[in-house]
Amino acid sequence: MSLSKLTTYQLAELYQKNTLTQKDLLADLSSAIQSKDRDKRQIRAYVNFDSMQPRHRKADKGSKLWGVPVAVKDNICVEGEETTCGSKILKGFISPYNATVIEKLLNAGAIIYGRTNQDEFAFGSSCETSCYGPTRNPRDPQRVPGGSSGGSAACVADHTAIASLGSDTGGSIRQPASFCGVVGMKPTYGRVSRYGLIAFASSLDQIGPITKDVKDNALLLQAIAGYDPKDSTSANLPVPDYLNFLGKDIKGMKVGIPKEYIQSGLNADVKNSLDHAVKILESLGAKSQQISLPHTSHAVNVYYIVAPSEASSNLARFDGVRFGFRDKSAPSLLEMYENTRGQGFGAEVKRRIILGTYSLSSGYYDAYYLKAMKVRTKIKNDFDEAFKKVDVILTPTTPSAAFRLGEKTTNPLEMYLSDIFTISANLAGIPAISLPGGLAPDTQLPLGLQLLGRPFEEGQLYQIAYAFEQATDFHKKLGNVS
Amino acid sequence: MLTTIGLEVHVQLNSKTKIFCGCEIKFGSPPNSQTCPVCLGLPGVLPVLNRQVFDLGLRAVLALNGTVSKKIKFDRKNYYYPDLPKGYQISQFDCPLGQGGFIELDLGKKIRLNRAHLEEDAGKLLHDQSPDMSLVDLNRAGTPLLEIVSEPDLESSDEAYEYLSHLKAILKAVGVSECDMEKGHLRCDANVSVRKNAGDTLGKRVEIKNLNSFKAVKAAIEFEVKRQSEAMEKGEKLVQETRLWDDARQKTFTMRSKEEAHDYRYFPEPDLVPFFVTPEEIEKERRALAAIVFPKEKKERLMNEFKLSEYEARLISADEEISDLFEKLVKIYKPAKTIVMWITGEVFAYRASSDEFKLYGLSKLKPEFLVQLFKLVDEGALSFQVAKEKVFPEVMKGEDPTVVMKEKGLQQVSDDGALTQWIIEIIQDNPKVVGDFKSGKETAAMFLVGQVMKKSQGKANPGKVKDLLLVKLKEV
């Protein structure tokens, strides 16, 4: 069996038994990538296919992720490596520093191996807007892997990576995990340091792991979570041992199903997989009840004010002055700015910068940004209220299985709506995990389930997700683990 | 015409490191040597507020009689310029660190303050390093600033000048800024408008930028008041605009009109979490301030205790280093007026122009040697002129004036024989001036005294020269 099909804990066992060396593993992984990433399916999960270099540092063999290769989304800075966010404007930018998550992984003995494709600056839900071209879904190469962390989900699903890191601003970890049939966690805002993550929307962004199963996900989050003095928004709270939650009984756990998510019009396959999940959880002793998150219908609207507003400011530093692409022929400063940004950014990035700049403009700020922030508070309050009644909330991750390439690129609004179930967790800052919840009967495409929890209770999400995974074996049916 | 002026002053807080990263703040370092990924605005970096900057800001607000906001929050001010690495400046918009406060002028008029807020400085563009390129130096980017905005309570350029002097003195005294204008520690923009009568609504506000000294502030306000008044007299329409001061031509000129003004698109900085100031933190700074004697109190004490004039007392009290020197000297030398004369004349001149001062400040000076110099003059051992020109600079370097005087042979000459010899020579060399004196032009004698002093290289006792000269002239 190919070593690249293993999980991190399976690798650890082999290392412990001295039946595996890092060198053999990397050779195997490298040949898996070389033979699969650019075969006739053209998955293209990696952006540095031709120049992949393993990066690691000396660590104790007992370190938690010793010898585990982790693929990293192209918006997380790795020292000495080109980091481009899938954008032409950052071509040539070699990061002089490591993101905190990279430091943590290296210190835990992990190997940083491979940069994964994404929508440009993480603006997208299909991984089609990268300057490197689209990534395709290994489950069906005619379909998108989801986005923006499409490369990070595709490489794990395709067994060209053991595990990966993505980032999630409105669903960018969970939606691709759902489309590709793998496990993706968006931690609580502040659980994982954002230092070194090239910002999209600072108040929403979180880095999280994408893995083949729940246990691997818990192991990876364990390694990257925790307070970072370099990130003022990171939480100074202890990180529990997530493995302790795995295998714990879920008897009596209260699961809420928000009625606003299952209104008429929900795709029948998606609805069936949700109903099936409720039955499974109840058979394990959990109790389900319908709840209400009354401001749900405003989430997408709020998100498309708040996220582009912050993005319009965050992306101002890409001005051609200090790094990356610059139009060298421009005769004046203003034209240098205009040409650099005009040629360096893709259409979706420009659309969102314009949207955000407009929302923050004098005379419009109160009507858009300020109002959106008020509604955001109401959305958060909805969750606070709900979590007084239930322990976790269960929803579909996406309104449908993976769609076809090009299907939504001409209609941005339709594209934005594919994140309708994931956006609220970012607005509320709560943790949310997506895991395989079934297969669409006609297409055999994976359908994701989303579990949302109280702030900093990722452990409880792992507990219930693990119980569900063990009871269903969808992850095995999908070939994630054998 | 009535003038209305408001000042916006940017003060560099003297923290060890920058406001949002750990880079040291050093003036005059090679370009871009005091930088890191954070202050360079590289992709992915995040700001972390420097605690010391916050404390200094807090102390400044309290020292200026302001109220500290309960909630501390930062905002982004968005605009593009190559010296602004992130494309936005982290500043404070609707929740400034300090609100209100005032500065009291000499005659008791209180100039109200509107607000004081923390922000980061930008870098610098260098246009003189290459014929076809402008270069960026980001050493200054991220240096902490406190912007102090006054209400439009100032009514003349003199009041503005006095306001700035007081502001500088207070901030120096409480140790929040060195206020060195040469190093850009204190920068000022002035808002100026005129109107005919007190009942009229305020005139169109003109903001003047690029004011690099207190003198420039004063001159620019005077120019602007004149320009606006003349325009108003002629019935011309004034517009709200931003003008730049040209120090070489002593003129302001239009930079941008209201229509061209930036829309800074302020919004809360999501990378910094708002926090609340505790009463304990405020109390801590209040206690630190209680131990500091403010320039105003110091000034009043100098006037009462040493009978200095208000003007002298203000000059001495405005600067801690100077007032410390005065206190040390006055303990060992009684005539306070003599000390003031030496300080405001010689020490100030030395401070303004000497290269030694730039390197060492007043650190080498031994107060007892300065007093010894005063005494040598009092006793007639040194002429004032020689003491000032030849011995004083050595004393500032820490030298003993008696030793300097002896080694260089600078003792005052009061000996009749030597003086008479010089006088005879001068009388012989200047027959025409002597003739003028004889025909009744008494000032001619002063010229001859000057010539004798010159001949003696300043060493002759001028009183005795005058007496002996008058005797000799009668003999001619």
- The CATH architecture category of the largest domain in chain A equals Alpha-Beta Complex
Determine the mean pLDDT of chain A: 96
Q: Tell me the overall shape of chain A.
A: globular
Are there runs of chain B of 5+ residues with pLDDT below 50, and where? none
Number of strands of chain A: 10
What does this structure look like?
The complex is a heterodimer of chains A (482) and B (476). Chain A is of the alpha/beta class. Chain A is built from 15 helices and 10 strands. Chain A has a 10-stranded mixed sheet with strand order 2-1-3-5-4-9-10-8-6-7, sandwiched between helices. In chain A, helix 6 packs antiparallel against helix 14 and helix 8 (299-314) packs across helix 11. By secondary structure, chain B is an alpha+beta fold. In chain B, 42% of the residues lie in helices and 18% in strands. In chain B, the strands form 4 sheets. In chain B, strands 1, 2, 6, 7, 8, 11, 12, 13, 14 and 15 form a 10-stranded mixed sheet that branches. In chain B, strands 5-4-16 form a 3-stranded antiparallel sheet, with no helix packed on it. The longest helix of chain B has 20 residues, at 214-233. The interface between A and B is large, with 45 and 28 residues.
Provide the fold topology.
The complex is a heterodimer of chains A (482) and B (476).
Chain A: H1 8-16, H2 22-36, E1 69-73, H3 100-107, E2 111-116, H4 150-157, E3 163-168, H5 174-180, E4 183-186, E5 206-211, H6 214-224, E6 254-258, H7 268-283, E7 287-291, H8 299-314, H9 333-344, H10 347-360, H11 366-389, E8 392-396, H12 412-417, H13 423-428, E9 432-439, E10 446-453, H14 458-472, H15 474-477
Parallel strand pairs in A: 1-2, 1-3, 6-7, 6-8
Antiparallel strand pairs in A: 3-5, 4-5, 4-9, 8-10, 9-10
Helix pairs in contact in A: 4-5, 6-14, 8-10, 8-11
Chain B: E1 2-12, H1 51-63, E2 67-68, E3 71-72, E4 75-78, E5 88-91, E6 98-99, E7 102-104, E8 110-120, E9 124-126, E10 135-137, E11 144-150, H2 157-173, E12 186-195, E13 206-211, H3 214-233, E14 241-246, E15 251-257, E16 267-268, E17 275-276, H4 279-290, H5 295-306, H6 310-317, H7 320-332, H8 336-353, H9 355-360, H10 367-379, H11 384-396, H12 401-408, H13 416-429, H14 431-438, H15 443-455, H16 462-475
Parallel strand pairs in B: 13-14
Antiparallel strand pairs in B: 1-11, 1-12, 2-6, 3-17, 4-5, 4-16, 6-8, 7-8, 8-11, 9-10, 12-13, 14-15
Helix pairs in contact in B: 1-4, 2-3, 5-6, 7-8, 7-10, 10-11, 13-15, 13-16, 14-15, 15-16
